[in-house]
């Protein structure tokens, strides 16, 4: 039977990842993590520590598998489009790396016992082995890619964490920038009533979703 192979972690790594998981569970239920207004109010109340607190909060949420769609929008609303994109990209990348490490080191044995025999895991391992950077980049750029599930899935492969981190960082740029733009434009709409930035950001988000699907269909060979 095919088995996953990856290095065993040091004790300090396990303690760190365990602390992250406990922190995520202690911060509240899933409904709290998905409450946009509550998160904006909380982060804004941190004042000068808002940026650092936001990055840590986004990273922890991603590491424990919480859907993070709202977080880039929150960054855009709080820090503006440019800096919001920067901080959201940092938080998302750190969270993706932490989730990768959790799957590889904390949940490795448990997952191997339950899903190592599934064919999709064989396919994933083969794809990563042939062109790891480009495969991860393509997955990150694909629309409707389940971000949290993908993070844990890649942790079950033998891909080096450095390659995973680099491809993830680059692949997340289009979606993070677009969602941060949408958050900043939404904040402008609420404060000034100007609808144009929000409409432009919504159009960009629609393009980000539709264009990859159109390109895939265009590249697919025509059947006669």
Parts with pLDDT < 50 across at least 5 consecutive residues = 1-12
Number of domains: 1
Helix content: over 70%
Helix count from the secondary structure assignment:
12
**Quick check: average pLDDT?**
79
Output the helix-strand order.
HHHHHHHHHHHH
What is the approximate shape? globular
State the end-to-end CA separation.
40 Å
Q: What structural class do helix, strand and pairing data support?
A: mainly alpha
**CA-based gyration radius:** 19 Å
The proportion of strand residues reads: under 5%
Number of strands: 0
Biggest beta sheet attributes? none
Protein name: TVP38/TMEM64 family membrane protein
InterPro entries: TMEM64, VTT_dom
Family: Belongs to the TVP38/TMEM64 family.
Domain VTT: 66-184
Give an overview in words.
- With 224 residues, this protein is mainly α.
- The chain has one domain (11-219).
- 78% of the residues lie in helices and 0% in strands.
- It is globular, with a radius of gyration of 19 Å.
- The N and C termini lie far apart (40 Å).
- 35% of the residues are buried.
């Amino acid at each position: 039977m095919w088995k996953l192979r990856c290095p065993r972690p040091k004790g300090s790594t396990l303690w760190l990842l365990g602390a992250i998981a406990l922190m995520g569970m202690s911060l509240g239920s899933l409904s709290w993590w998905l409450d946009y207004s509550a998160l904006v109010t909380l982060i804004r109340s941190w004042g000068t520590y808002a940026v650092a607190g936001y990055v840590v909060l986004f990273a922890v949420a991603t590491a424990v598998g919480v859907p993070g769609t709202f977080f880039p929008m929150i960054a855009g609303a709080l820090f503006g489009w440019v800096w919001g994109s920067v901080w959201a990209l940092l938080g998302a990348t750190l969270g993706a790396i932490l989730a990768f490490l959790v799957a590889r080191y904390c949940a490795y044995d448990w997952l191997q016992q339950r899903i190592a025999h599934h064919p999709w895991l064989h396919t994933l391992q083969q794809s990563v082995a042939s062109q790891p950077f480009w495969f991860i980049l393509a997955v990150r750029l694909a629309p409707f890619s389940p971000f949290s599930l993908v993070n844990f899935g890649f942790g079950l492969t033998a891909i080096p964490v450095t390659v995973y981190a680099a491809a993830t960082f680059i692949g997340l740029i289009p979606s993070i920038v677009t969602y941060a733009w949408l958050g900043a434009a939404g904040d402008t709409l609420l404060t000034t009533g100007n609808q144009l930035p929000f409409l432009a950001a919504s159009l960009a988000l629609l393009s980000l979703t539709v264009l990859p699907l159109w390109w895939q269909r265009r590249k697919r060979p025509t059947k006669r």
